[in-house]
Please model this.
Amino acid sequence: MSYFSSIAPIRYEGAGSDNPLAFRHYDPKRIVLGKSMADHLRLATCYWHTFVWPGSDVFGAGTFERPWQQAGEPMARAREKADAAFDFFSRLGTPFYTFHDTDVAPEGGSI
Model:
């Protein structure tokens, strides 16, 4: 199941684009000072902020209703979250991601 199947991969369309899901200034292939923008700006998506954070702040509980944050078998939910995350990363074109151990899988009984 893809949560993002209705979204085409995000591409560079230039500063004049009116597409809300397009890069206007980041062109990964553009050469700047002898290196591509992709080499200068090694973009990464933060797993926690994008897929784990519940949307809470100092004033109250989280507001995000994500399927993998509901009750259920922890490893099944972790796999569901990973499938959604990697689908998102590929559509956004970010070759890297950052994470904490428990962002990816629930805490186990031992190391």
Q: What stands out?
A: The chain has one domain: 11-104. Residues 74-92 form the longest helix (19 residues).
